[in-house]
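wait is this the right file?? whatever heres the structure
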């Protein structure tokens, strides 16, 4: 068998999938941008990393928010150990998924490029197929609301551990106060 042919059999058909595997490795380092530059071509990954990075920064600016890579290549954002947003690191699936209120869920799934999230639709999660499905301001508002909805359902003891009294009241209404913006 031709060695070049055997090597080609193990490469993914889509070159973007092959090149995107560097995302999860890069985000696990202290300096994702420099790690990405050293392993990928700029045209391949810099745009997607930039899109991931603003969502990442916004999610981590919310009170007590944490992140981790889960299920192989999904960047998940949690509060109190519970998911409030998921962003795949590899292209090919939805751009971003998050929880929303039942009213917003009904409205959002009527829009183009927004679908009920796989496995989580019954809990009122939506998936944005592309970054252009909603404006950046709408995405920020809905992620903030998702964080609040999830946090308000945490046990009271967990809420007390994570936040002081003023922030707990903001969670119950799915909105963020100006207090403690930098805490996480």
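ok assuming it is, sequence goes like this
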């Amino acid at each position: 068998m031709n060695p070049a042919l055997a090597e080609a059999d193990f490469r993914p058909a889509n070159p973007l999938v092959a090149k995107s595997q560097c995302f999860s490795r890069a985000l696990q380092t202290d300096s994702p941008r420099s790690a990405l530059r050293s392993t990928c071509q700029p045209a391949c990954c810099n745009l997607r990393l930039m899109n991931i990075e603003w969502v990442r920064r916004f999610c981590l600016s919310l009170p007590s928010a944490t992140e981790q890579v889960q299920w192989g290549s999904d960047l998940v954002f949690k509060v109190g150990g519970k998911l409030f947003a998921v962003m795949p690191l590899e292209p090919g699936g939805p751009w971003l998924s998050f929880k929303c209120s039942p009213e917003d869920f009904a409205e959002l799934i009527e829009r183009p490029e927004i679908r009920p999230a796989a496995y989580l639709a019954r809990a009122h999660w939506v998936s944005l197929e592309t970054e252009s499905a909603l404006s950046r301001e709408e995405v920020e508002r809905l992620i903030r609301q998702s964080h609040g909805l999830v946090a308000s359902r945490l046990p009271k003891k967990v809420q007390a551990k994570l936040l002081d009294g003023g922030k707990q009241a903001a969670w119950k209404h799915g909105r963020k106060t100006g207090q403690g913006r930098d805490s996480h």
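The first helix runs from residue 3 to 9. so i think its the right one actually
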